[in-house]
Amino acid sequence: MSSFASKTKKTRMSCFSCCMSEEALTRRALQKSIMEHHDTKVLASFANISFSPDNSRKRCTGQEIAKHCRHNAGAKVFRYRDMCAATNNFDPHNQIGEGGFGRVYKGLIENPNRVVAVKQMDRNGYQGNKEFLVEVLILILLKHPNLVEMVGYCIDEDQRVLVYEYMANGCLEDHLIGLPPDKMPLDWNTRMRIAVGAAKGLEYLHEVANPQVIYRDFKTSNILLDEDFNPKLSDFGLAKVGPNGDDKHVFTRVIGTYGYCAPEYVQTGQLSTKSDVYSFGVVLLEMITGRRAIDNTRPPHERNLVTWAKPLMDHRRKFVLLADPLLDGDVPVKDLHQALTVAAMCLQEDPSLRPLMSYAVAALKCLVTSDGPEEGDNTEHSHHDDDKLSYGERLSI
């Protein structure tokens, strides 16, 4: 454990304990309701999903995907012509994003009229169909305020389309990195509120969903923000069902985004919920510093965010230099210290030493202020102006 993390152990644990009792009760109640739901059997079958691809095209048939998606509880099945009408024939002017498995368009569906995000999957390759199936099943079976809502899907001939709720403020990455001069940076409180919401999404996948789900692709571009900057996790195509019984990890080929993957996963292919915890630490560090996880435009020693930041995180005075300059010093010193402590715990090399996401949620919730209490919260937190950062001062904490 780093000296930075060990020196703040008592503070961290007292913060955790003050928030955990209510969280534990809520988590147990949610877990009980999910365990009683018959669709958990469908979720558990993820690990054994197999495909019978065409030998020439190596692609799953629409009938195979439809068979697995028959438990469509509330999700609407669209026709491809509906998707064309919603997006004006997938007009490039309506494109709002693009990822590894397809392009995303803003669209309008009817009955009732609703603005949505429409992701058209890349038709080339067997892998895209598998990711499509996994994402449909996860979003049908798992519901949480910090997971993006799936409105429906389309399986029509060789077309694979997912329809989500529309998130007005795009992805977190767009609000942290490379901001144009006329765009205001996120303030500290908004960043911490987003961090808490994203952590709650992971907590639900790890500690409430039964069986647990490993997200495997936690990064800023997969955290979407609604009109009030409430975060929701998206893009579940790489998600994996967690290990069974006494196993602590599953073995799988290494896929994900460079810079966010946990070291043990990259080196051995061992995947666990603690791999997601490491990725959360990287994203939290991005939110604190305003830097990319990997940035090849910077000097060589600064290109890897975690490698560059760790010596500063361990330094009792220099850690203040990690705050994003765009925050202009408007960060409570104790809050910065606490947030960096959480990041340091999540980024430990030994996965067994990384905290559960419920502990990260509890620690970060103490840093969030709001005009009114968050639903389910009774805690209050205040800051004083004389506690803000001064980049010229030398601190001893």
From TrEMBL:
GO molecular function terms listed in the Swiss-Prot or TrEMBL record: ATP binding; protein serine/threonine kinase activity
Binding residues for ATP: 119
Entry GO CC: plasma membrane
Protein name in UniProt: Serine/threonine-protein kinase PBS1
Disordered, as annotated region: 372-397
SUPFAM superfamilies: Protein kinase-like (PK-like) (SSF56112)
UniProt keyword Nucleotide-binding present: yes
Annotated keywords: ATP-binding, Cell membrane, Kinase, Lipoprotein, Membrane, Nucleotide-binding, Serine/threonine-protein kinase, Transferase
Cellular localization per UniProt: Cell membrane
Pfam families: Pkinase
